[in-house]
Amino acid sequence: MKNLYLLIFRTSLFVLLLLIFLSVNVFASILIESGSYGEISPAENGDMHILIRNDNSSYIYYSSGRVVKNVPIGMGDSTIIFETATSDGVDGVYVLYNNTANKTLFAQRYNSNGEALWEEPGSIVSTYNNPRVFSASVLGPDSRFVVVYDDFFPIYVTPAAYLWIISPDGDVSSHESGRFTHDWHFEMHSDPYEVYIKQAQNSYIAPIYNFIPSPSDTSKLGILEFDCDDNGFLFAIRKPLESNLKRELQRYDNQLNALWEMPIVFYAEMLGKTSSDIEYDCPEIIANNDGSVTLYPSSGSQDWNFSRIDSSGEFIYNVLELIGDSYRIKAALSCSDGSNLFLVFEGETDIMRLIKVSVEGNIEFSTVLKSGSCRYASIIENTDSTYATIMITSTDSIFVDKISNTGEILVGIEEADHPMQFTLHQNYPNPFNPNTTIQYEVPEASDIKISVYDITGHLKGVLVDEYHQAGAYNVKWNASKYSSGIYIYRLDYNGHHVSKKMLLIK
Question: pLDDT tier at 295 (50, 70, 90 boundaries)?
Fold first, then answer.
């Protein structure tokens, strides 16, 4: 009988723990949108900018657990698609988008409220004649938006691209070198002093503000992967000319001078590889801001271990095992506290997992986000020390999560569609002096107008008058030039309206 009670207790405990696990960890990601590509960038106070390429590319601003702005990029023109984006370094975001109707590339900058800062639709970057297939961007020194794009890409020709630099005010300048060639594994990285790209001929690293031709020193050629930190140093994996299997890890200064007397040597495995695969069989690199570098398996290779090497070339840890054999690393991040994040697809369990690894190689958390794999993913660190992930599946579904620095799933982004009716919320604060916020929800794409009247019905201002996609929105009103009293704010939509009162007290 005693054994029976013990068995019942253990079974009940197991079931309880299983229910807790399932309710807290599994499949927490929330579908926010459909699209073929997306980017996520930090905004202020832990909020986020999300840009999505779909039939009518969307800009989404996420705040306090909900979507508060969801608007089409390019004034609702479905021929304008989002190409690439990056944070502007001061709570906003730069965007490159493509008007496919007139073959023109535009750049636009948004602030933390989702408002365009340059004259609509944005600064003209370039026009083109041939199909475009590739674009990339980074935040450069002095908060400039550095953009790369291909102009033509026949499969039998080495890819060629143009590089453009856009100032915080929207002024566009082309790079003096004009076109440059890159390989299939193009990379571009930035530190506070320089932006570096990887040239295709002989595969070498070139700073774009001090462009250099192919170096004569063969120890600087054959670069396969590289990254740079915030201190002006670079790490690179290269393939020396004398061996197709040999790989060398070296640390460089910002003039590309080697800092280690001898590089760290690795060997690629031939097993299961073709002659073409072996060209790029090497680990991915994360340059950390403590002077160390983290190496981790690329998505196409399982022959490399997780390792971390300090600035002098000594291993902090090596041969770290995070999970089982059947996995793919979809995204990785070096965090401000020195740790690394890895977004991992586990093939055996068919789940996406976010894993945080300390500087010493200890797993700090391992959190399940969603079921199923994804073809594109990204991780960011928010301004409130939380993390966010964006994952895009093969069926063009986009999922986003916000996670604490201890691995707790704080909130998934709410579905961006999909209030049931037009709703005008009570302003907050109320009473107010002199600023207040008005929230409203739009269940379907519509022309929307938000107006403010005094108690006698005289119009005092129009806060919003534009086309909206379905979603939740807010707008602020500054009443500093108005006297105390009761005011009416009104939402007009599709020939109908709804209104509420608010009280200004000075």
Answer: very high
Own/partner pairs, 333-337, CB within 8 angstroms, 24+ separation: 333/286, 333/379, 333/380, 333/381, 333/387, 334/286, 334/287, 334/288, 334/289, 334/294, 335/381, 335/387, 335/405, 336/289, 336/381, 336/385, 337/405
CB 105 within 8 A of CB 122: no
pLDDT tens sequence across 206-238: 888 877 777 888 888 989 899 998 888 999 999
Q: How far apart are CA 302 and CA 307, in angstroms?
A: 14
Residue with tokens 């991780």: 379
| CA 170 to centroid of chain Cα atoms | 22
Q: pLDDT class for 154, splitting at 50, 70, 90?
A: low
Q: At CA 382, angle to CA 378 and CA 383, rounded to 5?
A: 155
Residue 407 scores a pLDDT above 60? yes
| Residues 248 and 237 sit within 8 Å (Cβ to Cβ) | yes
Q: What is the mean pLDDT of the chain?
A: 81
CA distance linking residue 32 with residue 47, whole number of Å: 16
Distances (CA, A) of 314 to 162, 259, 301: 39, 13, 24
What band does 15 get if pLDDT is binned at 50, 70 and 90?
very low
Residue 370's nearest CA partner among 342, 332, 399, 348 is: 399
Name residue 448's beta-bridge partners. Answer: 466, 493
> Is the pTM higher than 0.90?
no
User: Per DSSP, what are the bridge partners of residue 477?
Assistant: 436
pLDDT in tens, 181-194: 777 678 899 998 99
Look at residues 303, 296, 307, 299 and name the one whose alpha carbon lies nearest to residue 347. 299
The 3-class SS string of 205-244 reads EEEHHHCCCCCCCHHHCCEEEEEECCCCCEEEEECCCCCC
Q: Which residues contact 349 (CB under 8 A, 6 or more apart)?
A: none
Instruction: Report which of 272, 267, 260, 264 is spatially closest to residue 282, judged by C-alpha positions.
Output: 267
